[in-house]
Amino acid sequence: MSVKIYKETYFEASHRLMHYEGKCSRLHGHQWRVEFWVEGDVPADTRILVDYNLIKKVVEAYDHQVILNEDDPMVECISKFQDVITTKGDPTSELLAEIMVFELEEKCRDAGLSARVVKCRVYESVSCFAEWTP
Q1: Is CATH 3.40.50.2300 the classification given to domain 2-132?
Q2: Are the C-beta atoms of 98 and 58 separated by less than 8 Å?
Q3: What is the value of pTM for the model shown?
């Protein structure tokens, strides 16, 4: 039986965009909102496509973190005081959506689930988001 589920979750994190001219080139924070739409075949034994807590764990890994481009010179300095999540490229909402989709799908595969993400939205604010679709 094929099913679709939806999960909305939040995290707080700071980032900066090295290759952007404007305010976002400075280190700043957001309350990020992440929405996942997932579909697939439900296992007959559990009747659960994906545990909502699995989705939440993917997003929680970013909570109260500093997220920077791996080439950002701030990484070396901030890493002396706390962990830094680095990305290949500026940590835009577009890139974070792609990364989180990959991470969730990898966790689903590892758990033997046939679930796949059909859409993911990452909001930097209430009025703007990036949407990932396959």
Answers
A1: no
A2: no
A3: 0.95
